[in-house]
Specification:
26% strand; 298 residues; 12 helices; alpha/beta; binds adenosine-5'-triphosphate; 9-stranded mixed sheet; single chain
Amino acid sequence: MMNKKPVLIVGSIALDSIETSAGRRENLLGGSTTYALVAAGRSADVHVIGIVGDDFPAEGMEIYQRYASCLDGLVTASGPTFRWGGRYHANGDNRTTLFTELGVFAKFNPVLSSNDRNVALVFLANIHPQLQLSVIRQTDPAALIVTDTMNLWIDTTFDQLARVIEKTDILLINETEAQALGNDMSLDQAAEKLKAMGPETVVIKQGSKGATLYTATEKIDIGIFPLKQVIDPTGAGDTFGGGFLAALANGDNYTKALINGSALASFCVEGFGIEQLVNCNAAELERRKEYLADTVST
Ligand code: ATP
């Protein structure tokens, strides 16, 4: 494909235990990097930076080998892999973190190989802003930096997060986080405030209401692909980010990037962990993209 560029993803790699109204699963392959990789890796060339423990399952490594084209920066350290447990409430959106066991993630020090340093598109998936800053310092200054984050860092390490946002070209953020940063402004006002912090483009993800992208001159809204049942909302945002970035890496415009991210996210929430994302076939993905294209308004 013309204009195809590699993407570098840096985030968390976890084994998740998840409870939703649809059931309960333990030690699912998860973490922001995993979702973003599986979404992006089906159409783009993906480099991964991350850390796993010596208990990381062979099936997990097989997924990384299948979807990534460069794993120079994937370290296996002695000790347990990062584990996260969460429970979703009946309305599906609010969740409670049951436990966070950092394991080897506590010693994560992202190091970019010479192959990784030249990558033109970098996805800083949700991790501690200090680690995101360390990656920014190692990348090509001309690289496009796409950043995601979470409420925890807004509440606990705002100054470091602000330094990451200042160096970010495209900020992906969810509605609650945007409102926390924007002091309960409307989404339009919060987007303006966020753009004033550095990024040229801000995308506000709104769960089952879709997403809105803001540039200096444009506002693009996208809806969702309607689903009969949401099984597990974990990773929707990371999947959206991976799909969005892969489209940009392949030379697509923002509208197509929103469509790709939203279509892949709709598969993600239809199963536990990455199961439906891995299973989704090209024809059904195309059908969802066509549906989503009709929900776009500018
Ligand atoms: P997470 O923290 O769980 O990874 P997030 O809060 O960052 O998620 P969301 O806003 O929940 O991200 O979801 C991102 C995108 O996923 C939405 O913009 C939408 O395209 C898609 N999505 C989320 N929930 C649904 C749903 N119930 N049905 C269809 N698509 C959905």
